[in-house]
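job 3f2a | input accepted
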Amino acid sequence: MLHRLDHYNIETVLPEETIEFYCGVLGCVDAPDRRPAIPEPGTWLLVDDHPAIHIMFVDRDRAAPTGAIHHIAFEGSGYLEMCARLTDLGVEFTAVESPQFDLMQIFVMDPNQIRVEINIRGETEEVRSLSVGR
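job 3f2a | predicted structure (134 res):
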């Protein structure tokens, strides 16, 4: 079950202009210190203290059919149920565990080739305990 949009990611060859637009025009707060150590350069922009816009600085315009939008992400719940549902529907997905953040992630492509990320927090221990019991 989805609860809310978590963030979206923009790959840009115009980092200064992009930050200026979102911060200067829309009132976001640039918070590079809140961004984890990711190999690609970039920053996070905050909306109500939430890192809602992830900006990745790139050397060349790698925009795919979806333009500059790299992916969208939602907060969710029911990790095992979501994985089972995707499997039952024959939808390919990738699951990633980030225990340091108590975060389970599911990545799937929509029909328009937009990458969708589903972030499920607080279920890591439950998933591990069920996996051990199998």
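job 3f2a | The longest strand covers residues 2-12.
job 3f2a | closed
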